[in-house]
Amino acid sequence: MDTWEMVDAERSEFADLADSLTPEQWDAPSLCTAWKVRDVVAHVTQGASVGTGESIKQLLKYGFRLNKLLTEEAIKGGARPPEELRRELRATVGKRITQPGGKPEGALSDEVVHQQDVRRPLGKPRSIPEERLRCALDDAAHYNNSILPAKKRLKGLHLRATDLDWEIGSADGDVVSGPGEALLMAITGRPAALSDLTGPGVATLRGRIAT
């Protein structure tokens, strides 16, 4: 399966999840600060649909404050009825749009992480296919920007998955081990995943996520 095929599979499963949600679950909090479940769905739909030109226009509108842009546009989009959000999420399957400078691998990791942002607080766990999880981990661990400072967050640590053959980091670094999904969520700054991890490096990682 190539990367775009994995993205489509992830989007299809996210759309299936959205179709199963109750009205109360649409308004439940997600793992993303200030976002409800409906806002997360709006965000991933926007990410799959907004091309480079429109992205630049939005950045100009928000004075190049990317965090503010993402937060406010998701909340604005999430205010629409669930029926509309479900339909638009399903329509992302097959789209081949990436954010400026982005790659299909980035689209995949974004989809995987945001689906877990919804599933974890709703108590709807799943088993992420290993190929998708490995690709998402490889991608997320190499981000180095203000929104996803993974390289800074993981400096001096050694991450090791316990449910698939994947590890990264300094050979002599403090170990952080656990399920690949929990490692992915921690790498991308979700403190809720830290309780699923063990090792002497967890405290360091916790402190870096909190700052």
Give a structural overview.
The protein is mostly helical and 211 residues long. The chain folds into 2 domains: 3-95 and 103-122, no CATH class; 141-210, no CATH class. Helices cover 56% and strands 6% of the residues. It is built from 11 helices and 3 strands, in the order H-H-H-H-H-H-H-H-H-E-E-E-H-H. A 3-stranded mixed β-sheet has the order 2-1-3. Strand 1 (157-161) and strand 2 form a beta hairpin. The radius of gyration is 17 Å and the shape is globular. The model has no long low-confidence stretch (mean pLDDT 94).
Keywords:
211 residues, mainly alpha, three-stranded mixed β-sheet, globular
Secondary structure: elements and pairs:
Layout: H1 3-20, H2 23-26, H3 37-49, H4 52-61, H5 66-78, H6 82-90, H7 104-122, H8 130-140, H9 150-154, E1 157-161, E2 167-169, E3 174-178, H10 180-187, H11 202-210
Parallel strand pairs: 1-3
Antiparallel strand pairs: 1-2
Helix pairs in contact: 1-6, 1-7, 3-5, 3-6, 3-7, 7-8, 8-10
Percentage of residues in DSSP E strands: 5-15%
Number of strand segments: 3
Helix count equals 11
Find the structural class using helix and strand composition: mainly alpha
General shape: globular
Tell me the radius of gyration: 17 Å
Order of helices and strands: HHHHHHHHHEEEHH
- pLDDT averaged over residues: 94
Distance between the termini: 37 Å
The figure for the number of domains is 2
Helix amount: 55-70%
Largest sheet: 3 strands, mixed
Low-pLDDT segments: none
- Order of strands, main sheet, comes to 2-1-3
